[in-house]
Specification:
By secondary structure, the protein is of the alpha+beta class. The protein has 14 helices and 9 strands. α3 packs antiparallel against α7 and α4 packs parallel to α11.
Length: 338
């Protein structure tokens, strides 16, 4: 890896002793700190999007470049192509010095970071990042592709029945707001669970995992950042938000974006919350079956936490409790209202 790093002009004089492996935190990347350079090498372990190495790297590089003007993501510093010692290549990005979020106290900072992404002007050309013309239909299609894992995860009959109810509602279009409701399209982080943020010494939140960045519906990010399936995924965060905490989070986001965007997004909060939950739950069903092979070599305490969390969120009792959000947290507007 050292040889690959020195091919970048700014790192030509890099000493091997300056490479410091960082503790493994997530499931898809290893990270190596370049001491004294305020840089981090981001090394894929596998593509969560199922992309070939070059396509995955080019998409991530574009994501870091596009998001940098938000002021809440690491800067892009270089790309290392796939090759000997780096079969999937790597990216070099700016190092963010910070701590894991503490919830619910840091949710407002996360809301402001998301707002900074969502209020960026869209580019003239979306490629190479995805930009589905109907983000809600694309999200439902993703749920459908992943739904097979519910059948393979050994769920209890009660849990399977509850999930089947939610899938049926999504397929029937019961989760959509009124047809004349505008559908905004902005940059979205997708994988915005709180564990993918760092809080710096000024209390500013930085979104660090841009692998899945694309253009879509901002309500999906608001859902993913605050659902129980997300807030307990990372053992360094591992918290459950109360309904009032989620309301405050959404309000903090709304205060940080243009008023017209906030107005367009609010009718979508409930339906996108339900669909994002199905997307995340189906991914966790896959993890419960394939986690050991998807990300081999993970430290046992981290794997044990993630396995236990996946088992928890796939229980009938937990599913029923999360579903209360659709009523208790974000009530739907009456039909016909924007």
């Amino acid at each position: 890896m050292h040889a690959a790093l020195t091919t970048l002009p700014r790192l030509a004089d890099l000493d091997p002793g300056m490479l410091e492996p960082m503790p493994l935190k997530g499931v898809a990347h290893d990270h190596v700190r370049l001491k004294g350079r305020r840089l981090v090498a981001r090394i894929p372990r596998w593509s969560q999007l199922g992309l070939d190495p070059w396509t995955a790297l080019e998409r991530q590089a574009a994501a870091f470049r596009r998001a940098e003007p938000s002021g809440h993501t690491p800067r892009f510093a270089g790309l290392l192509p796939p090759g000997d010692g780096l079969p999937l290549g790597a990216l070099v990005v700016g190092e963010v010095e910070g701590r894991s979020p503490v919830l619910p106290a840091d949710m407002a900072a996360i809301a402001r970071a998301l707002a900074a992404l969502h209020r960026m002007a869209p580019p003239d050309v979306f490629e190479p990042l995805p930009a589905p013309p109907d983000p809600v239909a694309a999200l439902l299609a993703q749920v459908e592709r992943q739904a097979e894992w519910f059948d393979r995860a050994g769920l209890s009959p009660d849990a399977r029945a509850l999930i089947a109810e939610e899938l049926a509602a999504a397929r029937a279009g019961d989760l959509a707001p009124p047809r004349d409701t505008p559908m905004p399209l902005t940059a979205v982080g997708i994988d915005v669970h709180p564990g993918n943020f760092l809080i710096d010494g000024h209390g500013k939140a930085w979104f660090t995992d841009l692998e899945k960045l694309q253009y879509g519906h901002p309500a999906a990010d608001l859902a993913h950042a605050s659902l129980y399936t997300s807030t307990r995924w990372d053992p360094a965060v591992d918290a459950e938000l109360a309904p009032a905490d989620i309301d405050a989070f959404v309000d903090a986001w709304a205060m940080a974006v243009p008023g017209d965007l906030a107005d367009e997004v609010r009718p979508w909060l409930k339906p996108l919350r339900r669909l994002v939950w199905l997307r995340t739950l189906s991914w966790m069903a896959r993890w419960s079956v394939e986690g050991a092979t998807l990300s081999p070599g993970m430290p046992e305490p981290l794997r044990a936490h993630m396995d236990a969390h996946a088992a928890d969120v796939l229980r009938a009792g937990r599913i029923e409790r999360v579903r209360r959000d659709w009523i208790d947290v974000i009530p739907s507007p009456p039909r016909g209202e924007g």
